[in-house]
User: Which sequence fits this backbone?
C-alpha cells in the first residue's frame, strides 16, 4: 500500500468516500510530515494545526452524512502567503505586513473552503511575490527538497517545495512572470498557470494587475486538473475575471495526443545564452515522444524571446512600483534588498515606456494566437534553461539575467503547464512547458497526462522526503 502522502487526490478521495480513510487521519499524517521535515525545507511560514484538524473533522462528518463537496473534500492543501485568509495572518513574507490579519478570504480560499478542502497553513514566497531567495526577511527562504543547497525557483517557492517534499499533494501559487512554473520546474512538480482571467485574483496581493495569474502546484497532472476545476470560475468583483464556462478538466485526460498539432519553437531555448545541453536533449526527447504517441510536431519560429521578456518586465515593474510606491518612499529599509532593487526600477520608467510595452504586448499576443496557435493545438517549449542553481551562487545584488522562459505566456495570457521532463546529471529536476489556446486548459492537461505517463519520471521522489529525520 502507498504511504498516505503518495496517494493522488483521486485515490485519497476514493478512500475517503469508501470509509477506508478519514480526512482526520490524512491530515494528521500531513502534519506529522511537516513536523518531521519542514525544519530543513522551510516551506511553511505558518502551520494552522487547529484549523486543519477542525476542517478535517468537519469533512469526515459531512462525508459520513452523504454530503460530498467535490474532489477536494477532505484533501489537505496550503496557500502561498499572499492569499488572504480571514482571521489568519497573511504576511507576503515581508516585515511590511508581518502583523496583517485579513477580515475576508481570498476568492480562491473561499472556493477551496466551500469545496471542503483542509487548510494546513501558509507557505513561503519571495517578498511580495517578487524579490528573490532573501535571507534578510522575517522567514528563511524555502529550500529545494532535491538538494537543500539549491534554489527552489520563485516566487511560489514554498508551494513547490512542500509538494516536492510530500508535505501535501497540492498548493496554491501565483504567476506574474513564471512564479508557478519556475518553482515547479526546479522542484520537479507540476505547475499550472491558467488562462488570464480563468481564476480570480481577488484577495491575492497583487504584483501586476495586467500579468498576475493564480493556479495550483501539484504532484501530478491529474491533481492539477482536479484542483483547477474547483478554483476556476467567474468573479464579478475581479475586473480581470473572465465569464467563461468551466469544463470538467479530467474528462479527457486519458484520450492521449493522437491527432494533436504541436508547435515546437526550439530556437527560443536552444539559442538562448547558457541553455544546458541536458535541457535541449530532454525537450527533443519529449518532442519525439509526442510524435510516437500520434501527435504532429512541427518546428516554428516565434518573435525573439527578448521582446517578450522586455515587454513583460516593463509592465511588471511599472505596476509593481505603483503598488508599493508609498512604502518604497517612506519605509525603504523594511524591504529585502532584492525586492527593493527590483521595485525601485519602476521609478525610472516613463508613461511612454509603459505605453509602448502595452502596445507591444498586443502585437505579440496577436502574433501567437492568430499565427502559431491558429494552426496548432499546443506549443512545446522549455520552462528553464538549466537545473536549479545553488543558493550561494546568488550575488549580493539582484542579477539581471533570468533563467526562466516563462514570461511570454504571462504577456499573452495563454494557459501554460510545467511538468518534469527528466533529471540533470546532478540529480536535479528538468522541466518542459506546454502552452495552449486561451481557455483550453483541457487540451494542455490532456497532453500533459499523456507525456507524464510516457516519460516515466513521475514516481521518483527526493530522498529528503523518503527519509525524514526530526
Assistant:
Amino acid at each position: 500500500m502507498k504511504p498516505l502522502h503518495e496517494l493522488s487526490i483521486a485515490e485519497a478521495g476514493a478512500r475517503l468516500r469508501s470509509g477506508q480513510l478519514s480526512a482526520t487521519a490524512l491530515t494528521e499524517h500531513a502534519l506529522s510530515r511537516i513536523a518531521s521535515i519542514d525544519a530543513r525545507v522551510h516551506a511553511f511560514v505558518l502551520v494552522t494545526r487547529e484549523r486543519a484538524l477542525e476542517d478535517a473533522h468537519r469533512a469526515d462528518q459531512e462525508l459520513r452524512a452523504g454530503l460530498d463537496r467535490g474532489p477536494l473534500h477532505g484533501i489537505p492543501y496550503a496557500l502561498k502567503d499572499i492569499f488572504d485568509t480571514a482571521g489568519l495572518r497573511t504576511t507576503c513574507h515581508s516585515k511590511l505586513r508581518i502583523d496583517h490579519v485579513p477580515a475576508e478570504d481570498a476568492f480562491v480560499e473561499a472556493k477551496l473552503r466551500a469545496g471542503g478542502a483542509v487548510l494546513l497553513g501558509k507557505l513561503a514566497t519571495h517578498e511580495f511575490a517578487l524579490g528573490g531567495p532573501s535571507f534578510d526577511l522575517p522567514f528563511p527562504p524555502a529550500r529545494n527538497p532535491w538538494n537543500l543547497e539549491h534554489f527552489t525557483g520563485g516566487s511560489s517557492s514554498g508551494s513547490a517545495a512542500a509538494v516536492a517534499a510530500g508535505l501535501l499533494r497540492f498548493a496554491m501559487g501565483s504567476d506574474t512572470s513564471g512564479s508557478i512554473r519556475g518553482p515547479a520546474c526546479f522542484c520537479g512538480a507540476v505547475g499550472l498557470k491558467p488562462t488570464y482571467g480563468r481564476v480570480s485574483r481577488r484577495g491575492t496581493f497583487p504584483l501586476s494587475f495586467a500579468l498576475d495569474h493564480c493556479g495550483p502546484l501539484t504532484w501530478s497532472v491529474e491533481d492539477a486538473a482536479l484542483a483547477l476545476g474547483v478554483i476556476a470560475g467567474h468573479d464579478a468583483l475581479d475586473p480581470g475575471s473572465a465569464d467563461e464556462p468551466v469544463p470538467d478538466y479530467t474528462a479527457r485526460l486519458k484520450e492521449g495526443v493522437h491527432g494533436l498539432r504541436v508547435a515546437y519553437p526550439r530556437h527560443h531555448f536552444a539559442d538562448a545564452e547558457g541553455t544546458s545541453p541536458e535541457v535541449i536533449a530532454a525537450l527533443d526527447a519529449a518532442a519525439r515522444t509526442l510524435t510516437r504517441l500520434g501527435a504532429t510536431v512541427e518546428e516554428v519560429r516565434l518573435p525573439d524571446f527578448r521582446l517578450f521578456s522586455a515587454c513583460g518586465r516593463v509592465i511588471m515593474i511599472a505596476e509593481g512600483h505603483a503598488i508599493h510606491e508609498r512604502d518604497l518612499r517612506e519605509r525603504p529599509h523594511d524591504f529585502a534588498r532584492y525586492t527593493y532593487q527590483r521595485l525601485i526600477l519602476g521609478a525610472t520608467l516613463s508613461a511612454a515606456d509603459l505605453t509602448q510595452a502595452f502596445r507591444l504586448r498586443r502585437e505579440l499576443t496577436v502574433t501567437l494566437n492568430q499565427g502559431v496557435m491558429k494552426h496548432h493545438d499546443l506549443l512545446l517549449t522549455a520552462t528553464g534553461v538549466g537545473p536549479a542553481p545553488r543558493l550561494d551562487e546568488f550575488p549580493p545584488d539582484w542579477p539581471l539575467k533570468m533563467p526562466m522562459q516563462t514570461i511570454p505566456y504571462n504577456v499573452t495570457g495563454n494557459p501554460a503547464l510545467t511538468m518534469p521532463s527528466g533529471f540533470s546529471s546532478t540529480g536535479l529536476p528538468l522541466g518542459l512547458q506546454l502552452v495552449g489556446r486561451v481557455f483550453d486548459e483541457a487540451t494542455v492537461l490532456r497532453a500533459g497526462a499523456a507525456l507524464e505517463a510516457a516519460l516515466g519520471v513521475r514516481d521518483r521522489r527526493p530522498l529528503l522526503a523518503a527519509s525524514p529525520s526530526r
